[in-house]
Amino acid sequence: MPPAPPKQTIFTTMSALATELGAINLGQGFPDAEHAPELLAAAQRALAHKSNQYPPMRGLPELRAAICDYYGRRQGLALDPAQVVVTSGATEALAASILAVVQRGDEVIVLQPCYDAYIPLIERAGGMAVAVNLAPPHWTIPFDALAAAITPRTRLIIANTPNNPTGTLLTRADFERLGELCEAHDLTLLCDEVWEGMIFNGSAHASPLHVDSLKGRAIKVGSAGKLFSLTGWKVGWAVAAAPLADAIAGQHQFLTFTTATPLQWAVAEGLTLPDEWHDAHAAIYAPRRAQLIAGLEAAGYVVLPSAGTWFVTIDLAASGLPADDELVAERLIREAGVASIPVSAFYRDNALRGYLRLCFAKQEGVIEEALGRLAGFRTSI
Ligand SMILES: Cc1ncc(COP(=O)(O)O)c(C=O)c1O
After folding, report:
1. Which of 194, 234, 357 to mutate to test the pocket of ligand 1 (most atoms within 8 A of CB)?
2. How far apart are the C-alpha atoms of 262 and 48, rounded to whole Å?
3. Is the omega angle on the peptide bond into residue 113 within 30 degrees of 0, that is, cis?
4. How far apart are the CA of 323 and the centre of ligand 1, in A?
5. Of the candidates 201, 230, 202, which has an alpha carbon nearest to the alpha carbon of residue 37?
6. Which residues of the chain have pLDDT under 70?
7. Ligand 1 pocket: which of 14, 116, 164, 343 to mutate (most atoms within 8 A of CB)
8. What is the distance in A from the centroid of ligand 1 to the CA of 94?
9. Atom of ligand 1 minimally distant from the CA of 309
10. pLDDT score at 381
């Protein structure tokens, strides 16, 4: 008998239920319209006119150069293509990075709430996840608890900024402190930065690769799916100092080996679009975010402060609702026809149960309709 498969993710469960019930899907994070026609055209051109055979294992040189150029222009990072491994989505970059660093019996510190792939991937590598909890409303890193969680078996810390589900950001000061800990205990930092293009409060995105102490021991993970609102493309990458990048490439070659060649060409073209294009692309979501937050607040919901991603979270108890996110999510989809994601799904032990995540990457009419339903739900429950 094969071992029991991992539990189905909450995103799949909620999206399936939304389809079955005909609910508005503010659960899973994907846009309900195309916002990057330039990339669709580039992919069509690549399919028709460029190679459709295996690309180089570490990614097309043009894409790896474009990733370095993009991060140089947009984040002030000086990178070399030898530092880049192109993967099948950020998910594979996370998997290859964890497999490159973690061996049986190693401990990995995850900051919860955390994206739901981290812990299963750590366990698949034979490691043990050690959770350090972030607390609302600001979800800042509790550095004393983090330092106390480090043991001689700790190898890796996983961080995520902008954070899914909270939408909050880590700062350069956070990375300085993480750098001190990583240097002192010889740890690697894996930083999931897939939402780096979606920051709405004017803050600059901070990466561990901005900090000298982390340049040799941090892995930065990115995703074209998020940068271009093309979540189905599954083109991602890991960026790290060359020896670390070599170790990640070593794992990638036996995970997927390569990633769809025409999509790599198109993403390379997309990354070289002018800064104005990238700014305008992110700006598409700002009014939708403002609309969802304002509508929720007008309906009596308490929305937590956030700065990035396609999500906002609401505090159920402060909104006058039962502080049981699974129960509220279940009733919300069945009684009001709106899918959401309970934030407890981002905790290994469902440690925090009073918060719900809602996605605003939807058309304005859809958000309007959802807000009407949410308003009615709050007074009916
Ligand atoms: C924090 C985080 N990491 C990784 C991923 C996966 O990215 P990809 O679709 O490129 O595999 C997501 C997708 O939502 C995410 O939110």
Report:
1. 194
2. 9
3. yes
4. 27
5. 230
6. none
7. 164
8. 9
9. 16
10. 81
Ligand 1 atom nearest to CA at 91 = 11
Burial class (CB in 10 A: 0-12, 13-18, 19+), 327: middle
Per residue in 204-227, pLDDT tens?
999 999 999 999 999 999 999 999
Residue 164 C-alpha to ligand 1 middle, in angstroms? 9
Please report the pLDDT score of residue 7 as a whole number: 80
In single-letter form, the type of residue at position 322 comes to: P
- Name the CATH topology of 10-34+284-380: Aspartate Aminotransferase, domain 1 (3.90.1150)
Compute, in degrees rounded to 10, the torsion defined by CA atoms 189, 195, 200, 201. 0
Q: Where are the domains of the chain?
A: 10-34+284-380, 37-277
Ligand 1 residue neighbourhood (C-beta within 6 Å):
29, 89-91, 115, 160, 164, 192, 194, 223, 225, 231, 234, 236
| CA 194 / ligand 1 centre spacing (Å) | 6
pLDDT at position 349 is 83
> What spacing in Å lies between the alpha carbon of 30 and ligand 1's midpoint?
11
DSSP string, 168-205: ----HHHHHHHHHHHHHHT-EEEEE-TTTT-B-SSPPP
Cα(291)–Cα(287) distance, integer angstroms? 6
Q: What is the CA(193)–ligand 1 centre distance, in A? A: 9
Q: pLDDT tens for residues 124-146?
A: 999 999 999 999 999 999 999 99
CATH of 37-277, one of 3.40.640.10, 1.10.510.10, 3.90.105.10, 3.40.50.300: 3.40.640.10
